[in-house]
């Protein structure tokens, strides 16, 4: 789990993901000699801060977003949210501007948010939750499990993947915007019929820690029934523990596949977390294990 | 009107439209020998559950969505809406899961919705309004006139159509998502400049039962004035009774044409209904007749 | 500033921009002999009411929307907003229908809006704010500075531009819809990596009249940090006065670039105004000057 700990300490608030991209490019080059299949690698200015790995002859693509929620400095000591972070009085935030490193506390007052840093922070500076990782036998707790675990699971998949795209997308927490050009590229280079969203979902009254990886039948958006049934049937045969989610809200990179100009079936599959979008997101390690396993099974059988 | 009665009894809640697609494919193969022009037919996995009919050399496409609003079983006895159904205490709902057929009543309590079925319903199971069709000399009343009448009108159009696309789309009631790939295909195969949305709209303070088919000048979205004027001018000459709608809300497959990467003019044209998104939607038969007629005229003169 | 005064007196509420398009086509043909580079000109039915000018070998595109907010006549004496106009009791509105010219006053009552014209106005008729332009040494005040100033600035840019697209888009005030097909055309004809949105923003607690052109770090949507930093660095060296905006709301044609299938970096750059979406929008002339200047600098150095 060393690579996961590393992932958790990289700051990449939406729109400023290049540190994470650099890490992933470096990781890929270092590790791919041990992978079963050597992927074609696509990144650089034509892909903004995204990274695509093409293994063999893909019919399925796996997407993991590499950005996180956070905050941006506005005027005076005001902050504007990036994505939808929970606003918790006194939360420690960190970042950097041209004057140096920043560590400050969040305060909220009448629906507005402020920082208490001892000097003005340059306009547009991004701030992240201060990271604190806790791991015991049962649980991992940290900021940004959403979506460091999705990235981690996708990287585990790379080790044995024979055919498929593994794609690291940006901006997801703030409305998206990289998926359309990623899909455009994928469908021209080596088109797919299926997409899986490697991301983290919610513990709710129907989804519990320890009951397995979540296959999402719907969130705010609804994938096609035929495809969900195919996935459930493969999962059922695999013996990997899974649970079925039915929500009326929430969205993922799947949304942009649904509305893309391609007939690609999609499904969100990932471990559930508690304390969503707080500095102490919490996931059961057995659910993360099931997540890693189900992706290996699905990419073989879809 | 036998085919309309059949259409009204097929369940196809958004994301699970394959029964309707199968019906339409069968209907087309059975009837097309009597049609003036034999269309090219496109369907299958590359089109998800959509169906496209290409007649002659098209400059206009007609879109009718084949999905309906409904409900999906969540956890315990909870339901989540699909699209925007009216929540009416005691409404009968029907469906099927792996344990058999389902008939139950809807209950609402503090903004949540429940069913009263005697056993748990499998997660993700879709439920529809129980169908009851009533037809007299003046009116037809049933669940899902929206958009069975739009499909019916499009099928009537097929009988005499010489040039044009007739397209059956999916997911419309729940945010859309098939239009982008349908438009991508159409613009590559035989591109169009105009699109008409064959769908059902609302009786309001400016739109009355019996006053003719509705030409919508705007809903939440605004088609181009030049195109609307052309349509009104053709309608005016035709003698078919019509009324003009101006609304600030509501949307249709036209929305996805507006935001598509093609400069295609669009307009929503359809009969108005009362009791929108309830089990007892109501449309004047004379308005449906006018709808069928105006499409024949427009496809000839646009 | 004569051309600006002319621009301000043309009515072009979203969906009915053809008068403005005609003016711009005429203007271009009249003036382009004095421009440093003669552009290729694209307009006509394939572009709806948009106009594109291609200068040399573009790597950047500048977008200025030519539509305005306004109102549309509904039933009886009701009005529906087009875009988001401020509703100010007693505001004078003007327009035309088939019965002749219209001048009336706006009234609001319980969240609905009405006009007081002496006869019914034809359904779907667009009404604009009555125009009144006031210019002194420091300020210009008028209806529709948003986005007549953006158009004006783009036209000034044309005089010396060597390489770049200058694009006049439609529908922006009402959700957009021309950008996707404009981008599709641009990326096929002469693709770009950068887009600048020539539009007018807001005076707020961090943005003041007279402090220079606004470079927007974010509005509701967030452009990529790397690109914003490049723009700020060019602006800094240029000596043109500028100020940095960080907002949580508001959107522009940049939104549709963010969600396009192309990896195009974008940034909103324009003068700030007070009294947004009222008949008396107000902009400092020095900020407009800075806007004109920064575009010339950026198109040379990006």
TrEMBL record, chains A, B, C:
<keyword id="KW-0031">Aminopeptidase</keyword>
<dbReference type="GO" id="GO:0004177">
    <property type="term" value="F:aminopeptidase activity"/>
</dbReference>
<dbReference type="GO" id="GO:0046872">
    <property type="term" value="F:metal ion binding"/>
</dbReference>
<keyword id="KW-0645">Protease</keyword>
<dbReference type="Pfam" id="PF05343">
    <property type="entry name" value="Peptidase_M42"/>
</dbReference>
<keyword id="KW-0378">Hydrolase</keyword>
<keyword id="KW-0479">Metal-binding</keyword>
<dbReference type="InterPro" id="IPR051464">
    <property type="entry name" value="Peptidase_M42_aminopept"/>
</dbReference>
<protein>
    <submittedName>
        <fullName>Putative aminopeptidase FrvX</fullName>
    </submittedName>
</protein>
<dbReference type="InterPro" id="IPR008007">
    <property type="entry name" value="Peptidase_M42"/>
</dbReference>
